[in-house]
Specification:
Bound molecules: glutamic acid
Helix content: 25-40%
Low-confidence stretches: none
Strand order of the largest sheet: 1-2-3
Order of helices and strands: EHEHEHEHHEEEHEHEHEEHHE
Number of strands: 12
Shape: elongated
CATH architecture of the largest domain: 3-Layer(aba) Sandwich
Distance between the termini: 40 Å
Largest sheet: 3 strands, parallel
Strand content: 15-25%
Radius of gyration: 20 Å
Oligomer: single chain
Mean pLDDT: 90
Number of helices: 10
Number of domains: 2
CATH superfamily of the largest domain: HUPs
Length: 309
C-alpha cells in the first residue's frame, strides 16, 4: 500500500492542511504502508522555490516522514504531454474555446463552490480535428475530456461512504489540458498518482467532487483506481474553509509563538477524535490503534485562537 502527501506549495501549511496530512500519514503508516511526498507545483499560478522548501520544513517539523520524494510536477512536463497524446489518439478529448475563467479554474485543485456550472458541451464535435479548430479561430485551445451522457461513476469512499455521480449531468466534459498549455490539476494528479504507485488517497472533502473525474482518468490510465477517503475540512466560525480571514493558523506562525509541534499534533488529534483532551503528542504516538472511523463526520471548527491562550 502506498499513500501520498501532496501539498500545493502555494503558501505555508496551516492547521487545516496539517490535519489532513496527519490523517493521511496515520492512515497509511498504521497499516505499514509506504508514503511519498509530492509538491504540487503546477497547482497555482506562482509558486516560488522557497514555498516548496517551507512546505517540506513544515511537514518535517510536524513529525511526518516519507519513503520517497519530494517529487515535483514541473519536471514531468513530457510525461503529461505523452498522456495527452494518448488521450487524443483514443479520441477521448476535444478542443474547446470556451470562457477563459472556466479554463483558468482548471489550473488549481478546486475549493468548495469552485466547480462552476456544468459545461454544456458547446465545443464538442465542433471541429473535425484540432488543426481545423486552430485554423478557424486562431487562438489557443483548451482540451476537454468527453463524458458519455449516461455515464455513472461509483466508488466506495473509505470515509464519505458510497458515492454515485452522474458525471455528464452533474459535472459535464471537463478540462484536462489548459489553454496556456500543460495539464489541468485533474490530469496531473492522476498521472502522478498512477506513475508513483499511489493506491491510497486520503485528502480533504473539498476534493470529493473531483473524484469522479479522476476515476475516469484512472480508468483510462490504470493500473486500477485507488482507494479514496475524503475527510471533512477545518472551517472558521463562519463555516467557511480555514483561510487567512480566520486569523493566522499557519504552522510557521504557531511555531514563532512558541507552540511546539507536539502541541499542534495534540490539538489535531483531539479534533480528529483520536484523544480526548489535547496534550503534547508526536504523530508516531497515534499510530497504535489508529482508526479512521473515529474521526468525526462534521467539519472541525477553528475557534479563532489557540486553545490555551
Ligand atoms: N494539492 C492539492 C491540495 O493541496 C491536493 C490534491 C490531491 O490531494 O489530490 O489541495
Amino acid at each position: 500500500m502506498q499513500g501520498r502527501l501532496a501539498p500545493s506549495p502555494t503558501g505555508v501549511l496551516h492547521l487545516g492542511n496539517a490535519r489532513s496530512f496527519l490523517l493521511a500519514w496515520l492512515d497509511v503508516r498504521s497499516r505499514q504502508g509506504r508514503m511519498i511526498l509530492r509538491l504540487e507545483d503546477l497547482d497555482g499560478p506562482r509558486i516560488r522555490p522557497e514555498d516548496i522548501d517551507k512546505a517540506i520544513e513544515d511537514l518535517q517539523w510536524l513529525g511526518l516522514d516519507w519513503d520517497e520524494g519530494p517529487f515535483l510536477q514541473t519536471p514531468r512536463a513530457d510525461r503529461y504531454q505523452e498522456v495527452f497524446t494518448s488521450l487524443l489518439k483514443a479520441d477521448l478529448i476535444y478542443p474547446c474555446t470556451c470562457s477563459r475563467k472556466d479554463v483558468e479554474s482548471a489550473a488549481s485543485a478546486p475549493h468548495p463552490g469552485d466547480e462552476g456550472p456544468v459545461y454544456p458541451g458547446t465545443c464538442r464535435g465542433r471541429w473535425k480535428d484540432p488543426e481545423a479548430a486552430a485554423a478557424e479561430i486562431g487562438v489557443e485551445l483548451c482540451w476537454r475530456f468527453k463524458v458519455d451522457s449516461d455515464l455513472v461513476v461509483e466508488w466506495q469512499d473509505r470515509f464519505a461512504g458510497p458515492r454515485r455521480v452522474e458525471v455528464a449531468r452533474e459535472l459535464g466534459d471537463f478540462v484536462v489540458w489548459k489553454r496556456e498549455g500543460g495539464p489541468s490539476y485533474q490530469l496531473a494528479v492522476v498521472v502522478d498518482d498512477a506513475d508513483q504507485g499511489v493506491d491510497e488517497v486520503l485528502r480533504g472533502d473539498d476534493l470529493l467532487p473531483s473524484t469522479a473525474r479522476q476515476v475516469l482518468l484512472w480508468e483510462f490510465l490504470g493500473p486500477s483506481v485507488p482507494s479514496f477517503a475524503h475527510v471533512p475540512l477545518v472551517v472558521g466560525k463562519d463555516g467557511r474553509r480555514l483561510a487567512k480571514r480566520h486569523g493566522d493558523t499557519t504552522l510557521a506562525l504557531l511555531r514563532e509563538k512558541g507552540i511546539s509541534s507536539e502541541e499542534v499534533t495534540g490539538l489535531l488529534a483531539s479534533w480528529s477524535g483520536l484523544v480526548e483532551v489535547p496534550g503534547p503528542l508526536r504523530p508516531c504516538d497515534l499510530l497504535d490503534g489508529f482508526d479512521l472511523a473515529k474521526v468525526p463526520r462534521d467539519p472541525v471548527v477553528w475557534p479563532g485562537d489557540w486553545p490555551s491562550e
